[in-house]
Amino acid sequence: MRKAFALPTVAIAAAAFPLLTMGTALADHDGSYQASLGAVNSSGVSGTGMVTLKGDQATVTVKASGLLAGSPHAQHFHIGAMGTCPTNDLADDADKDGFVSVTEAAKYYGAIGTSLTTEGDTSPDSGLAVDRFPTAEGGSYTYERTFSVTEDVQKAFAAGTAVLVVHGIDKDGSGAYDGDIKSDLDPSLPMEATAPAACGPLKAAQMGTMPAGGAETGAGATSGTENQAAIGVGALAAVGAAAAGAVAYRRRQADQA
Ligand SMILES: [Cu+2]
Protein backbone atom coordinates (compact mmCIF):
# COMPACT_ATOMS: atom_id res chain seq x y z
CA MET A 1 0.00 0.00 0.00
CA ARG A 2 2.67 2.46 1.00
CA LYS A 3 4.78 1.84 -2.10
CA ALA A 4 1.82 2.14 -4.39
CA PHE A 5 1.04 5.50 -2.81
CA ALA A 6 4.66 6.67 -2.90
CA LEU A 7 5.20 6.25 -6.64
CA PRO A 8 3.02 9.13 -7.88
CA THR A 9 4.49 11.33 -5.15
CA VAL A 10 7.97 10.78 -6.53
CA ALA A 11 6.75 11.45 -10.04
CA ILE A 12 5.21 14.73 -8.99
CA ALA A 13 8.34 15.79 -7.18
CA ALA A 14 10.46 14.89 -10.20
CA ALA A 15 8.18 16.91 -12.45
CA ALA A 16 8.64 19.94 -10.23
CA PHE A 17 12.36 19.48 -9.74
CA PRO A 18 13.57 21.16 -12.97
CA LEU A 19 11.91 24.36 -11.77
CA LEU A 20 13.60 24.11 -8.40
CA THR A 21 16.95 23.50 -10.06
CA MET A 22 16.75 26.90 -11.74
CA GLY A 23 16.79 28.55 -8.35
CA THR A 24 19.33 26.40 -6.60
CA ALA A 25 21.87 26.78 -9.43
CA LEU A 26 22.78 30.11 -7.82
CA ALA A 27 26.01 30.13 -5.86
CA ASP A 28 25.43 29.68 -2.16
CA HIS A 29 26.88 33.11 -1.33
CA ASP A 30 24.63 34.99 -3.74
CA GLY A 31 22.54 37.63 -2.07
CA SER A 32 22.75 40.92 -0.22
CA TYR A 33 24.97 41.73 2.73
CA GLN A 34 24.85 44.77 4.99
CA ALA A 35 27.24 46.34 7.47
CA SER A 36 26.63 49.02 10.04
CA LEU A 37 29.90 50.89 10.48
CA GLY A 38 30.92 51.61 14.05
CA ALA A 39 33.75 53.89 15.14
CA VAL A 40 37.20 52.52 15.93
CA ASN A 41 39.88 54.64 17.65
CA SER A 42 37.15 57.00 18.93
CA SER A 43 37.00 58.38 15.37
CA GLY A 44 33.37 59.45 15.51
CA VAL A 45 32.92 57.86 12.08
CA SER A 46 29.67 56.12 11.23
CA GLY A 47 28.16 54.71 8.08
CA THR A 48 26.74 51.76 6.23
CA GLY A 49 27.89 49.21 3.71
CA MET A 50 25.82 47.22 1.24
CA VAL A 51 27.15 44.42 -0.93
CA THR A 52 25.21 42.40 -3.46
CA LEU A 53 27.00 39.27 -4.61
CA LYS A 54 26.08 37.42 -7.77
CA GLY A 55 28.63 34.83 -8.77
CA ASP A 56 31.98 36.61 -8.61
CA GLN A 57 30.44 40.05 -9.16
CA ALA A 58 30.13 42.34 -6.16
CA THR A 59 28.14 45.56 -6.28
CA VAL A 60 29.36 47.62 -3.36
CA THR A 61 27.94 50.76 -1.77
CA VAL A 62 29.68 52.43 1.18
CA LYS A 63 28.40 55.55 2.90
CA ALA A 64 30.57 57.05 5.63
CA SER A 65 30.57 60.32 7.52
CA GLY A 66 32.46 61.94 10.37
CA LEU A 67 35.73 61.39 8.48
CA LEU A 68 38.79 63.61 8.20
CA ALA A 69 37.70 65.97 5.43
CA GLY A 70 39.62 66.30 2.20
CA SER A 71 41.73 63.21 2.81
CA PRO A 72 41.66 59.78 1.18
CA HIS A 73 40.34 56.87 3.20
CA ALA A 74 41.52 53.34 2.43
CA GLN A 75 38.65 50.87 2.61
CA HIS A 76 38.68 47.10 2.37
CA PHE A 77 36.86 43.86 2.84
CA HIS A 78 38.86 42.08 5.50
CA ILE A 79 38.55 38.29 5.68
CA GLY A 80 39.88 35.18 7.34
CA ALA A 81 39.43 35.82 11.06
CA MET A 82 36.49 36.08 13.45
CA GLY A 83 34.39 38.41 11.30
CA THR A 84 34.16 40.94 14.11
CA CYS A 85 35.51 44.38 15.00
CA PRO A 86 37.68 45.72 17.84
CA THR A 87 35.41 46.27 20.80
CA ASN A 88 37.47 48.22 23.31
CA ASP A 89 39.96 50.86 22.16
CA LEU A 90 42.15 50.64 25.26
CA ALA A 91 42.20 46.88 25.61
CA ASP A 92 42.90 46.36 21.91
CA ASP A 93 45.83 48.80 21.85
CA ALA A 94 48.32 46.07 22.70
CA ASP A 95 51.47 48.18 22.26
CA LYS A 96 49.92 51.17 24.10
CA ASP A 97 50.84 53.69 21.42
CA GLY A 98 47.40 55.25 21.61
CA PHE A 99 46.10 53.61 18.42
CA VAL A 100 44.30 50.38 17.66
CA SER A 101 46.41 49.61 14.59
CA VAL A 102 45.52 47.36 11.68
CA THR A 103 47.89 44.78 13.12
CA GLU A 104 46.17 44.88 16.49
CA ALA A 105 42.71 44.66 14.91
CA ALA A 106 43.62 41.76 12.62
CA LYS A 107 42.74 39.11 15.18
CA TYR A 108 39.14 40.31 14.87
CA TYR A 109 38.70 41.10 11.19
CA GLY A 110 41.63 39.40 9.45
CA ALA A 111 43.68 40.40 6.44
CA ILE A 112 42.69 42.44 3.41
CA GLY A 113 40.64 40.37 0.96
CA THR A 114 39.55 43.17 -1.37
CA SER A 115 40.67 46.78 -1.72
CA LEU A 116 37.63 48.95 -2.39
CA THR A 117 39.36 51.26 -4.83
CA THR A 118 37.65 53.78 -7.08
CA GLU A 119 39.33 52.40 -10.22
CA GLY A 120 41.74 49.70 -11.33
CA ASP A 121 43.04 46.85 -9.23
CA THR A 122 41.01 45.72 -6.21
CA SER A 123 43.41 43.10 -4.88
CA PRO A 124 45.17 43.28 -1.50
CA ASP A 125 48.14 44.73 -3.44
CA SER A 126 46.17 47.99 -3.67
CA GLY A 127 45.56 48.08 0.08
CA LEU A 128 47.32 51.40 0.51
CA ALA A 129 46.81 52.88 -2.96
CA VAL A 130 45.77 56.20 -1.42
CA ASP A 131 45.34 57.90 -4.81
CA ARG A 132 42.58 55.40 -5.69
CA PHE A 133 40.47 55.54 -2.55
CA PRO A 134 37.54 57.90 -1.88
CA THR A 135 38.35 61.36 -0.59
CA ALA A 136 35.98 62.61 2.10
CA GLU A 137 35.04 66.04 0.80
CA GLY A 138 33.31 67.72 3.69
CA GLY A 139 33.99 64.68 5.87
CA SER A 140 31.77 62.18 4.11
CA TYR A 141 31.59 60.13 0.95
CA THR A 142 29.43 57.68 -0.93
CA TYR A 143 31.23 54.94 -2.83
CA GLU A 144 29.66 52.71 -5.45
CA ARG A 145 31.41 50.21 -7.69
CA THR A 146 30.84 46.78 -9.25
CA PHE A 147 33.79 44.43 -9.74
CA SER A 148 34.76 40.79 -9.41
CA VAL A 149 35.90 39.34 -6.11
CA THR A 150 38.09 36.31 -5.53
CA GLU A 151 36.81 32.95 -4.33
CA ASP A 152 38.26 33.38 -0.84
CA VAL A 153 36.28 36.60 -0.48
CA GLN A 154 33.11 34.95 -1.77
CA LYS A 155 33.54 32.19 0.78
CA ALA A 156 34.12 34.71 3.58
CA PHE A 157 30.79 36.36 2.78
CA ALA A 158 29.04 33.00 2.88
CA ALA A 159 30.75 32.14 6.17
CA GLY A 160 29.88 35.48 7.78
CA THR A 161 33.54 36.45 8.24
CA ALA A 162 33.75 39.36 5.78
CA VAL A 163 34.20 42.74 7.47
CA LEU A 164 34.03 46.24 5.99
CA VAL A 165 36.79 48.52 7.32
CA VAL A 166 37.41 52.21 6.58
CA HIS A 167 40.81 53.62 7.53
CA GLY A 168 42.26 57.03 8.31
CA ILE A 169 41.73 59.13 11.43
CA ASP A 170 42.84 62.54 12.67
CA LYS A 171 43.51 61.61 16.27
CA ASP A 172 45.37 64.83 17.16
CA GLY A 173 42.84 67.05 15.40
CA SER A 174 45.47 68.72 13.22
CA GLY A 175 43.37 68.47 10.06
CA ALA A 176 45.79 66.13 8.34
CA TYR A 177 47.36 62.69 8.60
CA ASP A 178 50.50 63.38 10.63
CA GLY A 179 52.21 62.70 13.93
CA ASP A 180 55.32 60.96 15.11
CA ILE A 181 53.87 57.46 15.25
CA LYS A 182 54.41 55.63 11.97
CA SER A 183 52.04 53.18 10.32
CA ASP A 184 52.48 49.54 11.21
CA LEU A 185 51.77 48.77 7.54
CA ASP A 186 54.07 51.30 5.87
CA PRO A 187 56.54 53.29 7.98
CA SER A 188 56.62 56.01 5.32
CA LEU A 189 53.03 56.86 6.31
CA PRO A 190 51.78 58.25 9.61
CA MET A 191 49.77 55.85 11.76
CA GLU A 192 46.81 58.22 11.38
CA ALA A 193 46.61 57.44 7.63
CA THR A 194 46.13 53.69 8.08
CA ALA A 195 44.58 53.11 11.52
CA PRO A 196 41.00 51.81 11.30
CA ALA A 197 38.38 54.54 11.61
CA ALA A 198 35.24 52.45 11.22
CA CYS A 199 34.39 48.77 11.06
CA GLY A 200 31.31 46.67 10.45
CA PRO A 201 30.74 42.93 9.94
CA LEU A 202 28.99 42.18 6.64
CA LYS A 203 25.98 40.04 7.42
CA ALA A 204 23.41 38.51 5.09
CA ALA A 205 20.48 40.89 4.74
CA GLN A 206 17.19 39.74 6.24
CA MET A 207 15.29 40.49 3.04
CA GLY A 208 17.64 38.88 0.53
CA THR A 209 17.05 37.98 -3.08
CA MET A 210 18.00 34.35 -2.54
CA PRO A 211 15.32 31.81 -3.46
CA ALA A 212 16.41 29.89 -0.36
CA GLY A 213 15.15 32.75 1.82
CA GLY A 214 11.52 31.72 1.54
CA ALA A 215 12.21 28.12 2.45
CA GLU A 216 14.41 29.04 5.40
CA THR A 217 11.78 31.28 6.95
CA GLY A 218 9.08 28.63 6.68
CA ALA A 219 5.64 29.42 5.33
CA GLY A 220 4.94 32.22 2.91
CA ALA A 221 7.27 31.49 0.01
CA THR A 222 7.47 34.65 -2.04
CA SER A 223 10.14 34.18 -4.68
CA GLY A 224 9.19 33.74 -8.30
CA THR A 225 10.93 30.41 -8.57
CA GLU A 226 9.04 28.93 -5.66
CA ASN A 227 5.73 30.20 -6.97
CA GLN A 228 6.49 28.55 -10.30
CA ALA A 229 7.24 25.30 -8.53
CA ALA A 230 3.95 25.44 -6.62
CA ILE A 231 2.03 26.15 -9.81
CA GLY A 232 3.83 23.30 -11.56
CA VAL A 233 2.74 20.83 -8.90
CA GLY A 234 -0.80 22.19 -8.86
CA ALA A 235 -1.16 21.76 -12.61
CA LEU A 236 -0.74 18.05 -12.14
CA ALA A 237 -4.01 18.08 -10.20
CA ALA A 238 -2.60 15.89 -7.48
CA VAL A 239 -1.55 18.34 -4.82
CA GLY A 240 -1.77 16.31 -1.65
CA ALA A 241 0.06 16.95 1.57
CA ALA A 242 2.49 14.17 0.63
CA ALA A 243 3.42 15.85 -2.64
CA ALA A 244 3.94 19.22 -1.01
CA GLY A 245 6.06 17.57 1.65
CA ALA A 246 8.19 15.84 -0.95
CA VAL A 247 8.82 19.11 -2.78
CA ALA A 248 9.73 20.86 0.46
CA TYR A 249 12.09 18.01 1.32
CA ARG A 250 13.80 18.16 -2.05
CA ARG A 251 14.12 21.91 -1.65
CA ARG A 252 15.80 21.55 1.74
CA GLN A 253 18.18 18.97 0.35
CA ALA A 254 19.06 21.24 -2.54
CA ASP A 255 19.64 24.20 -0.21
CA GLN A 256 22.06 22.22 1.87
CA ALA A 257 24.11 21.00 -1.07
CU1 LIG B 1 41.53 47.62 5.77
Description:
- This protein is α+β, with helices and mostly antiparallel strands and 257 residues long.
- It has eight helices and nine strands.
- The protein has a single domain (28-251), classed as Superoxide dismutase, copper/zinc binding domain (Immunoglobulin-like), CATH 2.60.40.200.
- It is 32% helix and 23% strand.
- Strands 1, 2, 3, 4, 5, 6, 7, 8 and 9 form a nine-stranded antiparallel sheet that branches.
- A hairpin with a 2-residue loop joins strand 2 and strand 3.
- Helix 1 (2-24) packs antiparallel against helix 7 and helix 1 (2-24) crosses helix 8.
- The relative contact order is 0.22.
- Bound molecules: copper (II) ion.
- Copper (II) ion binds next to strand 4 and strand 7.
Short description:
By secondary structure, the protein is of the alpha+beta class. It is built from 8 helices and 9 strands.
Give a quick set of tags describing it:
Immunoglobulin-like; binds copper (II) ion; alpha+beta; disordered N terminus; 9 strands; nine-stranded antiparallel β-sheet; 32% helix; 257 residues; globular; 8 helices; signal; disordered C terminus
CATH level 1 class label:
Mainly Beta
N-to-C terminal Cα separation, in Å?
Answer: 32 Å
Main sheet overview: 9 strands, antiparallel
What fraction strand? 15-25%
Which H/E pattern describes the elements? HEEEEHHEEHEHEEHHH
Query: Domains counted in the coordinates: how many?
Result: 1
How many strand units? 9
What structural category characterises the helix and strand content?
alpha+beta
Task: Give the SSE layout.
Blueprint: H1 2-24, E1 31-39, E2 46-54, E3 57-65, E4 75-79, H2 89-92, H3 102-109, E5 111-115, E6 140-148, H4 151-159, E7 163-167, H5 191-194, E8 196-201, E9 203-204, H6 212-216, H7 224-235, H8 241-256
Antiparallel strand pairs: 1-2, 1-8, 1-9, 2-3, 3-6, 4-5, 4-7, 7-8
Helix pairs in contact: 1-7, 1-8
Bound molecules: copper (II) ion.
